[in-house]
Amino acid sequence: MKVKQAEFVISAVGPDQYPVDALPEIALAGRSNVGKSSLINRMINRKNLARTSSTPGKTQHLNYYRINEDLYFVDFPGYGYAKVSKTQRQVWGKMIERYLLERETLRMVLLIVDLRHPPTKDDEMMYDWLKHYEIPICVVATKADKIPKSRWQKHVKQMKEGLLMRKTDSFVMYSSETGVGKDELWAHIESIAGLGQEDHIQPEPEQTAE
To answer: Where does the record place the EngB-type G domain (predicted)?
Structure first.
């Protein structure tokens, strides 16, 4: 996708604040500091629209980013950060669960994981939860640039086996630093969101028969 326009819309805490324009939504879930904000910025060719933070757990809402008037990225609070209180984690959990189960415009969840390490227990729980409710999922393994190319497949295998991934689920190896996986991920998002080339390319004039 050629991104011509990207904007932050709202930090929402409930359905009454969600956009009402019915554009398809792609949610991003992952543990704190896994690189969700960096992924968003690289995908839309912006340096700091999605703000990265040195303080894990800072995102406390569902952050909506509108892309090309075509779709939304919805950034979830990062999970698995110990310094966030149990009460706050429960609040986030209920907010996210309600969104995932009730949001009709949700098309897919990008489960963002760190390619360098085996999936965490929280990663495994999120994957299993999404599969249980039959929510479309694409596992995106970030930080590929931190691993020598000769070891990529070893780490991909480690991630897939750790999550017990189904063969029907999509997997994209990604780097916000180098752009590895960006085009592949956009192609998958466009397909899931129903944004074919016809949405972006002007049709050629019809030719009259001789």
So the answer is: 22-195
